[in-house]
Amino acid sequence: MSILEAIILGVIQGLTEFLPVSSSGHLELAKVILGDNSLPEESMLMTVVLHAATALSTIVVFRKDILEILKGLFQFKKNEEFKFSLNIVISMIPAAAVGILLDEEIEAFFGGQVLLVGSMLLVTAVLLILADKAKDTAKKVGIKESVIIGISQAIAILPGISRSGATISTSVLLGVDREKAARFSFLMVVPLILGKIAKDILDGAFDVIDGSMLNYGVGFVAAFATGILACTWMIKLVKISKLRYFAYYCLVVGVAAIVYTAI
After folding, report:
1. How would you class 23 by CB atoms within 10 Å of its CB: exposed for 0-12, middle for 13-18, buried for 19 or more?
2. Across all residues in the chain, what is the average pLDDT?
3. CB neighbours of 252 closer than 8 A, spacing ≥ 6?
4. Following CA atoms 28, 31, 37, 43 in sequence, which dihedral angle do they give, to the nearest 10 degrees?
5. Cα–Cα distance between 215 and 34 in angstroms, integer?
6. 224 SS3 class
7. pLDDT > 90? residue 126
8. What is the DSSP letter of 73?
9. Alpha-carbon distance 131 to 90, whole Å?
10. How far apart are CA 152 and CA 150, in angstroms?
11. pTM, whole model, 2 decimals?
12. Three-state SS for 241?
């Protein structure tokens, strides 16, 4: 992988992480288009590095919210901050369990599985269309909603199923306000990504860098920089735009990916 390709992947990650179009799916398709012949472990490593960059950009943008979550979590008082913090923790459990128990199986999905990505993008499109038709309410995220949204996040580990698309759509279908759903969606993933990185370091996954550290570093910077920009204006775009437009996009890209595998 060249430095230019690493930059392209970083930009793709930074731009697509905050839109309901599957950043992981776009990364896999980009790797195929760029002719990336990395092993699944190496491909997964680049994906983790780029997700870490956008996680950091999320932390920067939502630093006040994150401080409130940490404050509420350690107050042990039944106030709104503690309830929100508890819901964030609950929502992490399904994805964390899947990531720990099925780690090796998940890595196999990140090796240019174009047909899988295309099929899952179609699933994302359906979810977004259903959510677009749902009526807006002022409902908050509770424990029940946190569990269900958490399950959606666990399923969205598959490349092609948008994590934000799945969690926001699930939230909206459960009657949660879109603005609250978007905020909850972007905040709930940060601890999981950081935990994944810590696990990879302990497991020695970063040993596969094999001298291309510069590429990972450049990709990280590109994803972080574009992630900062994307997180400031694209989140607003998600909240004010109709989800069906993102659904149409996922539909087109998904069909194109499936046709590509048939050629």
Report:
1. buried
2. 82
3. none
4. -50
5. 14
6. helix
7. yes
8. H
9. 23
10. 5
11. 0.81
12. coil
* Contact of 254 with 119, CB cutoff 8 Å: yes
In three-state secondary structure terms, 204 is coil
Among 27, 16, 2, which Cα is nearest to 215's?
2
204: left (phi over 0), alpha (psi -120 to 50) or beta: left
Cα first-last separation, the chain? 25
Residue at token pair 């107050």: 75
Residue whose token pair is 């997700």: 51
Q: SS3 for 176?
A: strand
DSSP string of 6-68, one letter each residue: HHHHHHHHHHHTTTTT-HHHHHHHHHHHTT----HHHHHHHHHHHHHHHHHHHHHHTHHHHHH
Q: Cα–Cα distance between 125 and 185 in angstroms, integer? A: 18
* pLDDT tens digits for range 23-75: 878 877 887 787 765 545 555 677 778 878 988 998 998 888 888 877 777 77
